[in-house]
Amino acid sequence: MKIASIQLEIKDQESKEQRVERAAGLVDQAAQDADLILLPEIWATGYFSFDRYIEEAELITGPFVTLFSEIAKSHGVYLFAGSFVEKRDGNYYNTSILFDRQGKLAGTYHKTHLFRYGSKEGELLTRGDGAKVIETEFGKVGLTTCYDLRFPELYRQQVDLGAEMFLVASAWPHQRLEHWKLFNATRALENQSFLISCNCVGTTRNVLLGGHSSIVDPWGITLASGEEQEAIVKSEIDPSEVSRIRETFPSLKHRVL
């Protein structure tokens, strides 16, 4: 299967509508040669634009989700449209969305670990209730978001639910770039799973974003990675490699705790 991770630049001078239009154009471009396309975390509003969270929040039935459902269907691709601020029952969530080739909402995930270090996310949003694994044509997929990468127990729970691949939407700062690279490789290796991440780039609200969106195989080897500019990071993977590697080197079966 062919992967395209859209490492989107966040520009403070853009409105939400302008950024959505630009991102949709990049999805159209990536869809010419991809089975699965990814976008990053709260990219339409901008993760660090906390003053815009409530104003720009939408329902799961709103125009943001509707648009990317239509785009996934029109191209016949799986589309992990990253996350947005969802308004639901009086609360607000950092919600990731995955569409199948028919544009159906295959699954959603509410971010479990809300970031609080130099961030108002934990004050404004409600955390999710843990591991989420989605059945797809290319295997079972675990959805996670940014800060979740620091919590290995969440990924191990997803493996116990059958996950063979992790999709990660992020707005990870450049300041902790080495942590990002380490966690991308480690979460894949320790769980013998593919990990595909999509991070933002650019400077927003005086925060330099890290980029380096990655496609990592179950041995923890990075197959493709972006740098620090807007780009579409591409690679081709064989999902059946997960079962082969888990049988060849069965570390997950050797767990005693």
Automatic annotation (TrEMBL):
<keyword id="KW-0378">Hydrolase</keyword>
<dbReference type="InterPro" id="IPR036526">
    <property type="entry name" value="C-N_Hydrolase_sf"/>
</dbReference>
<feature type="domain" description="CN hydrolase">
    <location>
        <begin position="1"/>
        <end position="239"/>
    </location>
</feature>
<dbReference type="InterPro" id="IPR001110">
    <property type="entry name" value="UPF0012_CS"/>
</dbReference>
<comment type="similarity">
    <text>Belongs to the carbon-nitrogen hydrolase superfamily. NIT1/NIT2 family.</text>
</comment>
<dbReference type="Pfam" id="PF00795">
    <property type="entry name" value="CN_hydrolase"/>
</dbReference>
<dbReference type="InterPro" id="IPR003010">
    <property type="entry name" value="C-N_Hydrolase"/>
</dbReference>
<dbReference type="GO" id="GO:0016787">
    <property type="term" value="F:hydrolase activity"/>
</dbReference>
<protein>
    <submittedName>
        <fullName>Carbon-nitrogen family hydrolase</fullName>
    </submittedName>
</protein>
